[in-house]
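Here is one chain, start to finish.
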Amino acid sequence: MNTSSIVRAIGALGMLVATVATVATVVSGVTPASAGGPFAVLTVTKTVEGSPPEGAEFVIEVECFAVGGRIPESMRPMADTLVLDETVTFGPGGGSESFDIAPMVAFDEVSCTVLETGDGAADRVEGGDQVISMNEPGEYSAEVINEFDPVEPSTSTTTASTTTTAAPGSAVVTPRFTG
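Its structure:
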């Protein structure tokens, strides 16, 4: 084996080690400082329109998988790897929650499913089952809207009645109709 063969072998081994380290970083969700932060940020917003029942809760599950790959299949045994699995609960006022998606040097894209599993008894839900595909760095968002119809005031009729009670030892006089 000559020197250039050894250098090539060491170079290939170095690339393999770097690739395995990158995949481990993506899978664990750890963002090294040298990477400059997350690959992407996914913000899930819950909007509530109308008046939900008292104590209503809105549960949203977020699952993100890294799919595909920029490295040969034989070198990426963890393709389609779960990189985020979170459940967030919003109260009657709604709100937002942001999730950092780890750098994805070794994958083609990250695909996130945003699924509302608890809708607070809403009359209508918009965006309760979404798939967000991230194939470049940036900020991504998903909004889930729950609508509640106005509560109609109930109408009821009450009939008033009058009861006369005579005190003991007294007489009750009812006038006679003479007419």
